[in-house]
UniProtKB/TrEMBL annotation:
The lineage of its organism: Archaea, Methanobacteriati, Methanobacteriota, Methanomada group, Methanobacteria. Its cofactor is Mg(2+); S-adenosyl-L-methionine; [4Fe-4S] cluster. Its EC number is 4.3.99.3. It catalyses: 6-carboxy-5,6,7,8-tetrahydropterin + H(+) = 7-carboxy-7-carbaguanine + NH4(+). Residues 18-233 form the Radical SAM core domain. Catalyzes the complex heterocyclic radical-mediated conversion of 6-carboxy-5,6,7,8-tetrahydropterin (CPH4) to 7-carboxy-7-deazaguanine (CDG), a step common to the biosynthetic pathways of all 7-deazapurine-containing compounds. It comes from the Archaea. This is 7-carboxy-7-deazaguanine synthase. Belongs to the radical SAM superfamily. 7-carboxy-7-deazaguanine synthase family. Mg(2+) binds at T40.
């Protein structure tokens, strides 16, 4: 089986609850959404990068292993577009992986959830213009969250916020997640301020408003992308 991979590199995880872990990033090519803030436009083209077999991917990853290696980050683009390949790869090579996903394809998530140790699931906002039908996307994200929780994956969800983001929008999403996921005690929400961070110099009081709004419903952390501050890939 083959998959188009945009890039494979070793770095320090810069987002979410595994921040600081040394990971090997496998950036799959192609994405089914078009978030207006996306910082990885090069990964959205399904033909970008090169085509890899499972064995070729293993060899590339194996050549990048370092003493501090923690796990593989399966990212993109959208890795769920490559669920069959990911399943085949992880059945052959049982690496610990972090799946960095938009959660929009629960049927694809079902193929790999049992093989994924860590997952970061982005909840997109209507203002992100990720898709024309936000309600359906949110329902799919909730289905994917429940699949991961049911498979005992170490999971957190993440929301990218902009200075224009309305606190009520975040409150509504956090309350619906609390109502509709199977076990809220298993789920933290990471609030991730959109990069570039200079947006936030005059808006940092909003960070407290967002955190308090989510804190009424879920465990919450506010964490920026630190790889950009460290100037690592
Ligand atoms: C490039 S996406 C790939 C994985 C998956 N498609 C997703 O959206 O989660 C990885 C993460 O980058 C983050 N991201 C992309 N552009 C960003 C930006 N301008 N500011 C902050 N986070 C950003 C999103 O939170 C997303 O979860
Ligand atoms: N260092 C580093 N950490 C990351 N966490 C998520 C990333 C992504 O692009 O999916 C990313 C990335 O591109 N680099
Ligand atoms: S889903 Fe992820 S890769 Fe796709 S456009 Fe949005 S942030 Fe970028
Ligand atoms: Mg990135």
């Amino acid at each position: 089986m083959k998959a188009h991979i945009n890039e494979i590199f070793s770095s320090i995880q810069g987002e979410g609850k595994l921040i600081g872990r040394r990971q090997i990033f496998v950036r799959f090519s192609g994405c089914n959404l078009h978030c207006n803030y996306c910082d990885t436009p090069q990964g959205l083209d399904p033909t970008s990068g090169s085509s890899f077999s499972e064995e070729q991917l293993f060899n590339s990853v194996n050549n990048l292993i370092t003493p501090d290696f923690h796990s593989i980050s399966l990212t993109g683009g959208e890795p769920l577009l490559h669920a069959d390949f990911i399943r085949s790869f992880l059945e052959k090579y049982d690496f610990n992986c972090l799946l960095e996903t938009n959660g929009s394809l629960p049927d694809e998530m079902e193929k790999i959830a049992e093989l994924i140790k860590y997952a970061s699931l982005d909840i997109k906002l209507p203002e992100h213009r990720s898709t024309s039908n936000w309600d359906n996307l949110f329902k799919d994200e909730l289905k994917s969250l429940n699949l991961l929780i049911d498979n005992k994956t170490n999971i957190y969800c993440k929301i990218v916020i902009l200075p224009s983001t309305k606190v009520d929008a975040i409150k509504l999403i956090a309350s619906r997640i609390l109502d509709e996921i199977s076990d809220a005690s298993k789920l933290s929400m990471v609030i991730q301020p959109a990069y570039p961070l200079n947006h936030w110099i005059k808006n940092n009081e909003k960070l407290f408003e967002f955190s308090e709004a989510v804190g009424n419903y879920l465990d919450v952390l506010t964490i920026p992308q630190v790889h950009k501050l460290l100037k690592v890939r």
